[in-house]
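debug: dumping io for the single-chain case to check the tokenizer round-trip. Nothing else runs in this session.
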Amino acid sequence: MRIQNLLLKKTKIFLFVSVALFCQLVINAQDITVKGTIIDAEDKSPIPGVSITIQGNQKGGVSSDFNGNYEIKTKIGAVLVFQYLGMKTQSIKVKNSQLNVVMISDVESLDEVVVIGYGSVKKKEITGAVTQLKSEDLESVVTSDLGSTLQGQSVGVSVVSSDLPGADSEILIRGVTSLNDNSPLYVVDGIIQDGNPRIPPSDIESLTVLRDAASTAIYGVRGATGVILITTKQGRPGTLQVRSNVSYGIQNRRSAVPLMNSIEQTYFDVIQSLNVNGTLPQDVNLQILQQPLLFQNETNLNDLVFNDSAPISNHNLTISGGKEDITYNVNLGLFNQEGLQINSAFQRFNMRANTVYNKKKLRIQSSVALNIEERDIPQSNLLSQAIVYRPTQNGLDLNVIDELTQGGDDVNRLGWVLESLRTTNVLKTTRTNASTNISYKLLDDLTLTSNLGITRINSIGKIIRPYTEIYNTQGVLQSQPENSFIDNRTRFTTNFVAELGANYLKQFKEDHKLTLTSFLTVEKNTSEAFSARRAGVTIDGSTVLNLATGTQSVTSGFDYTDTRIGILGRLQYDYKGKYIFSASLRRDGSSKFPTSNNWGTFPSISAAWNIHEEPFWKEYKNTINSFRFRASQGTVGVDRTPSYSFDPTLSADIN
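debug: decoded output
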């Protein structure tokens, strides 16, 4: 009896715990409305305009009203992030529907150093339109592309993400400024890059976007499209640290373009004949009357063209450490993404090693990076071909391609779709980069600086379009072996940058600060390419040119050598952190323009007034803790025209 009572007692306890856990899970999954008030820790006054977002979700944020009240819909267990300029950012886990927050002043935020062109300033000393993002802002999104991480995080930056794995996003900072290429200029650790450096977000410590003309004029002929300054991660003195970050996700597409079934296709044919040809419905030559068995197919190619539950994964390993005079940081990454469309994927291995030697007057920073990428690029016209493929046509199985027979226009549609489905386009790219920044403090106020960087990009692409025999209903061969081919293409590009400069920083009587900067820059970009193609891929599984049997051709690509040279100077003046003035002048020469007009001058001037530093603003600081007035003007240039566009050329085979 005692054993039965004991078992009964334990059973009740187990049931109670189970019900409690179940209720807890239900509560955690509930959507609730969180309300609260946000106040200042110093004077307990409400803070209006505080940004409240849900961690991991950049959309759906709210702001506190004039009385510091806020209201946001979220879930139990979610983390709310409270951000306000001049206050420390707080991340708080939601436990119930009431959450009051006390914000603490962050004096250091306005003294934070921000990288600008050829130098750095405190955030409160910025005179141009500049936005800075930290590594935690960039790593919150799992993506291979830097542009996707910028989306919605920087004012004045328009980003259109690509739907293809490994493809670059379209980034517009200053709108459309060129008829050719409007992507921004990238500068990595002070080294100007030619094109997108394709740096993984995991390698970036901070990113600064220069948006207005006064900020980008320091880059002269290359500043019109805006500038993105990237600082890669550096080591810190201390014991060895090893950090690992792994993420995995599943991609699912939204509904594709809905395709018509056989009944809808028949109705479409009737209406089209009536509106286009004036044929009455009873006179339309319907397919169902000639080939009724085909209406049992109900073919829909969406299931063949698209992949569901495509995985995406990202693995990062960071090793860092060092001593007071030398630090190191090594970052390894592996990214893998399957595309939602057939024959689309992206894989990348990246490695970057940074070392910094800093002792007495000498500072040497060196970086070595390696990126190995492989992209599977789908055919651009496949989606439109799948749409026009009729539901009455036979279904397709790419593993069984024998006895492909169709009649009328259906045989043409079948050939187009099969070509796109069976064509593979693989692009392999290896990018190596090495850079060195050396600075030496010649005098207490004078520092000499040199920057050297070289980037080598080797890309090899291969397109394989195998041959498929397709017959019409009369048994006549409709496809041609010459339409199949193997195409190999390659390009080798080298970018070299060298800069030599000096920086003079003088503090006068604690209230006056004067900074003078001057640099001489030299750039050289060279590129060579060629391609080879051979038709007649009649042997199944052929992947090399020699296995094709048709005509062949070899052509050189567009080879070019571009050079630029520039000299620049800048003056910056700061009085008590209240009144800031900056002026710069750059003179650039570019080989892309004719010799009669290949030099340009790019001046800029800007000023800022930190009104919140004035004595009369003390009574308003509880409401508005940072208020400034800024004005700027600058001249920028662009040389995104193709190389040799202004040179006389000779054309062959013209009678």
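debug: round-trip ok. Confidence is low (pLDDT under 50) at residues 6-29.
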